[in-house]
């Protein structure tokens, strides 16, 4: 029996918008948004899409009309009553009413602000300007739209069975990864793959496969919509945009040097427990930890998102010991460019020495490498970052100079202020 | 939008009966049935299920109640008006009205006769007795029921994603076979996999994948229901049951020796063109061809279904040459235990020397080898054969002694009458 109404509905374009809800975003965006809403609501911020994989000429691949249609659709979305109820009533990280009533009221009325789109040299220049709490909500869905439209463009001429076999292969590949992960005792791993996922439906499939295949070792997803629908934990804490914007707002070098700690001081006031996770690499991990106030060593853990992850974890362990903390009680979250081999290696090296956890991103939700001719579905390095705040450029150094962002003179200034020495460049996979 | 009516319907058992139509059978059964209906309608024949893979204890795997339910369901099936219209109005092998009105009238009223089911030593003894045209229609659906229920038994405790990945792997495997076959110039291949298929839905998927993946090189399916639904050619000519029963009915050795030719004489009267395909191996290919009347050498081709296929094809080529025929105008259909390697090998050796065609069976529609623990889905050798006719046992020798069937003394008598010398045994894969 075909359901005629469903068929007719499906004929319309909305059968699968890339982003179907304001909750189809990373949980940490909501936590950060609430923090920004309270502490820096009027900051004028510009977000900009940056394709680090310039050989992928997105503007040649993706039709501009289609892109605008998806972005315009995003601007029509509003938090639904059910979504709002879930945010207000659900327990996150063991805490009820994580989101305060004033923030929820603001969020319920949020519509994404306008976007600015141009084509230049085979790439899209996509920027978002406005009040920080509003524009920051563009980051994840904008990335997801670009990633998925690129995939659709590559797949559009494939036959029905060719497509089915393509997904069959991707499913088999993921399942084989899950079977390997199952062998790791005490594993804790979450999905961090929203932004560069192959598609929403595919991310949802991956999450469900992880639930069935890993059981309790799968700790949740960063995607709020999927967390809500699949009734699992929403995972995430904070990201580089906080120190980047706080730093850009600093008036002096002294203030600049203090900015990253100011971020965490604000965070400290709001959150405890497993939400107190340091992200140390924005302006270099080593210097950040060396200069850190003692109260930061009391935090629950650290997230390692660039550079050599084992080296960074060793740096953190040494730092905790130096500050009189027991590393075995600390959480180390690895979240940069992970795949099974790397997870096995890091788990083998650090399990027992610290509490280890993994935020598995693009190679969980978008590993179609080698599955189409010309490798047209291989993931690539697309980011959407705050590039200026109140008219001043932002800077990110990270522990991998290939990931550095910002005007050259500002990068030089930040390197001096944060006392960043020589760094080892490593290729950015995703 | 969930379609509630569909859901409620699906709750009931009939969501997927193993066999859903009297047309869910091989096309050659219908051709043979019409022939039997005209020439030997009153012959009392017993069909019996024989599991040549005795290590697979079907009665331990398959619940008897479930088996009876499926067999009982088969006995409720009648040809629908649309199915009848298709048989009456469609063109088969380029011929209109392949099925005569008297046969169609009989078929429209057919219900499958009763079955007899017992358990013995871990196996089911399943027999069908009655008028030949009626009981012969049990063969294919009975096999399909046993094969699919065994698969369902093996799959019943698997998780949803585990199942999906299982099928993903099977799809990928088939697609890789199709990609290899695509490289063979001038390939002609049909689906012969109904009887030992994994399931109806899976066979239907395989056929559709062949349509998309091979285009014109895929010549059709032996399955009438799928041929009708997918609007492709129904393929098939005749099988061993005709000479087996004709032979059993012979009163003297001389009549016995003539029986296989008598079958083909009847066939000659009814059919021409691509339906004139010799199946020579029932009582040994070599002797059959040596003693064959000259008019048989004028037939369109030969189907090779046991023994070493290359050797049998060489025998046929030599025979055609000896009878003054041009082998390049003759069709050789390989249909025994084929998989891609064998198809590539036979195609490479015989393409150009004869017209080559392949009837791909079990390893097209049921290659789940190695996909579950314990290899519980590997195909096995289940047949359903006419074992007696008017109270006399039937015999099959074939070109592989491992496939011989019948009482020992009768086998000896047949070997003498048909002058069958030493044969090489080879393992029966499927």
From TrEMBL, chains A, B:
Lineage start: Bacteria, Pseudomonadati, Pseudomonadota, Alphaproteobacteria, Rhodobacterales
Residue numbers carrying Phosphohistidine: 240
PANTHER family: NICOTINATE PHOSPHORIBOSYLTRANSFERASE
EC primary class: ligase
The UniProt record lists the keyword Ligase: yes
NCBIfam families per record: NAPRTase, PRK05321.1
The organism of origin for this protein: Phaeovulum veldkampii DSM 11550
Matching SUPFAM superfamilies: Nicotinate/Quinolinate PRTase C-terminal domain-like, Nicotinate/Quinolinate PRTase N-terminal domain-like
Entry's Gene Ontology cellular component terms: cytosol
Pfam families: NAPRTase, NAPRTase_N
Protein name, entry field: Nicotinate phosphoribosyltransferase
Domain of life: Bacteria
């Amino acid at each position: 029996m075909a359901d005629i109404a469903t068929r007719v509905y499906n004929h319309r374009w909305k059968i699968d918008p890339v982003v179907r809800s304001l909750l189809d975003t990373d949980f940490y965006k909501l936590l950060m948004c609430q923090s920004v809403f309270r502490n820096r609501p009027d900051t004028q911020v510009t977000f900009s899409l940056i394709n680090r994989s310039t050989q992928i000429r997105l503007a040649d691949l993706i039709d501009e009309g289609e892109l605008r249609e998806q972005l315009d659709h995003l601007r029509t979305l509003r938090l639904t009553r059910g979504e709002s109820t879930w945010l207000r009533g659900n327990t996150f990280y063991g805490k009820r009413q994580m989101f305060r009533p004033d923030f929820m009221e603001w969020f319920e009325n949020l519509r994404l602000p306008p976007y600015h789109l141009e084509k230049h040299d085979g790439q899209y220049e996509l920027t978002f300007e406005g009040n920080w709490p509003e524009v920051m909500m563009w980051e994840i869905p904008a990335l997801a739209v670009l990633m998925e439209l690129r995939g659709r463009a590559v797949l559009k001429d494939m036959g029905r069975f060719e497509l089915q076999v393509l997904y069959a292969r991707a499913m088999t590949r993921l399942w084989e990864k899950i079977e390997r992960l199952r062998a790791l005792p005490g594993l804790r791993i979450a999905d961090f793959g929203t932004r560069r996922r192959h598609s929403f439906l595919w991310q949802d499939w991956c999450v469900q496969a992880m639930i069935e295949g890993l059981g309790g070792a799968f700790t949740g997803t960063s995607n709020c919509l999927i967390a809500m629908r699949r009734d699992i934990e929403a995972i995430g804490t904070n990201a580089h945009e906080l120190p980047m914007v706080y730093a850009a707002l600093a008036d002096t070098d002294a203030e600049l040097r203090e900015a990253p700690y100011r971020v965490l001081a604000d965070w400290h006031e709001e959150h405890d427990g497993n939400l107190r996770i340091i992200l140390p690499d924005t302006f270099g991990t080593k210097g950040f930890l060396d200069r850190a106030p003692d109260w930061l060593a009391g935090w629950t853990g650290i997230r390692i998102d660039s550079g050599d992850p084992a080296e960074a974890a060793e740096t953190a362990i040494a730092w905790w010991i130096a500050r009189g903390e027991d590393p075995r009680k600390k959480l180390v979250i690895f979240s940069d460019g992970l795949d099974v081999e790397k997870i096995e290696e890091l788990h083998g090296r650090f399990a027992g020495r610290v509490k280890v956890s993994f935020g598995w991103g693009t190679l969980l939700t978008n590993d179609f490498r080698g599955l189409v001719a010309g490798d047209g579905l291989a993931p690539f390095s697309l980011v959407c970052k705050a590039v200026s705040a109140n008219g001043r450029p932002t800077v990110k150094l990270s522990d991998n100079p290939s990931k550095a962002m910002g005007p050259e003179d500002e990068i030089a200034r930040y390197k001096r202020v944060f006392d960043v020495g020589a760094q080892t460049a490593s290729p950015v996979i995703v």
